[in-house]
């Protein structure tokens, strides 16, 4: 079974990262949807803010990054990543997916058009710090929320994909509660 972690908006919180790793254990790949190290000028410092130590932790992972609005060239340098596109197209277990930070989404319709433009079944995006897991027919729009600075009274959260004979996609809070789950 292949286990894939999808996270967003860690904003330099080593504390949140360590809680996550203790909860999920080993994974095969990590896709970070942006805003990895810097907390951003409009955000407070998250608990356990330590971008340099978080970067060191992430260097030991099989990490793929889409660039967020708070990610700078120096972030990529300290993470040891040569490139971070704004949009990443992947297939998870034969399901075409598009990953992006999402700072340019104006509304739900814009997100759905983005998904259609890339001819994908699943859109994963971050930026809002609010988890989302919506199904529109055969299409999914998923936001893992933020591990360190959740908004609108939501809990810190992430997404876990487990790919075997089928694909299980789970939206999970940092306290281990499964909020939504789908099997494909």
Can you walk through the features of this model?
This protein is 20% helix and 32% strand. The protein is an alpha/beta fold and 184 residues long. The strands form two sheets. A six-stranded mixed beta sheet has the order 3-2-1-9-10-11, with no helix packed on it. Strands 4-5-6-8-7 form a five-stranded mixed beta sheet, covered by helices on one side. The chain starts with a strand and ends with a strand. 41% of the residues are buried. The mean pLDDT is 95.
Features:
globular, six-stranded mixed β-sheet, alpha/beta, five-stranded mixed β-sheet, 184 residues, 20% helix
Topology:
Layout: E1 2-7, H1 14-24, E2 29-32, H2 51-58, E3 63-65, H3 73-79, E4 87-92, E5 95-100, H4 108-117, E6 122-125, E7 132-136, E8 139-143, E9 157-163, E10 167-173, E11 178-183
Parallel strand pairs: 1-2, 2-3, 5-6, 6-8
Antiparallel strand pairs: 1-9, 4-5, 7-8, 9-10, 10-11
One letter per element, helices H and strands E, the order comes to EHEHEHEEHEEEEEE
Count every beta strand, where a strand is a DSSP E run of 2 or more residues. Answer: 11
Please indicate the percent range of residues in DSSP E strands (runs of 2 or more).
25-35%
Overall average residue pLDDT: 95
Low-confidence stretches: none
Helical fraction equals 10-25%
Rounded to the nearest angstrom, the distance between the terminal CA atoms is 15 Å
What is the spatial order of strands in the main beta sheet?
A: 3-2-1-9-10-11
Sheet of most strands: 6 strands, mixed
Shape: globular
Determine the number of helices (DSSP H or I, runs of at least 4 residues).
4
Structural class of the helix and strand makeup? alpha/beta
- Rg result: 15 Å
């Amino acid at each position: 079974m292949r286990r894939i972690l999808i996270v967003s908006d860690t904003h330099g919180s080593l504390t949140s990262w360590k809680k996550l790793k203790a909860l999920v254990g080993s994974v095969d790949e990590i896709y970070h949807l942006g805003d990895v190290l810097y907390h951003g000028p409009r955000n407070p410092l998250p608990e356990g803010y330590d971008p340099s130590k978080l970067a060191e932790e992430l260097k030991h992972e099989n990490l793929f990054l889409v660039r967020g609005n708070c990610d700078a060239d120096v972030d990529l340098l300290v993470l040891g990543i040569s490139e971070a596109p704004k949009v990443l197209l992947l297939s998870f277990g034969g399901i075409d997916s598009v990953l992006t930070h999402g700072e340019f989404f104006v509304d739900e319709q814009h997100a759905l058009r983005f998904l259609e433009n890339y001819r994908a079944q699943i859109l994963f995006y971050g930026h809002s710090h609010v988890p989302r897991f919506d199904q529109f027919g055969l299409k999914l729009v998923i936001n893992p929320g933020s591990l360190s600075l959740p908004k609108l009274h939501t809990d810190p959260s992430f997404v876990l994909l487990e790919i075997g004979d089928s694909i299980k996609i789970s939206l999970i809070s940092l306290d281990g509660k499964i909020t939504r789950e789908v099997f494909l």
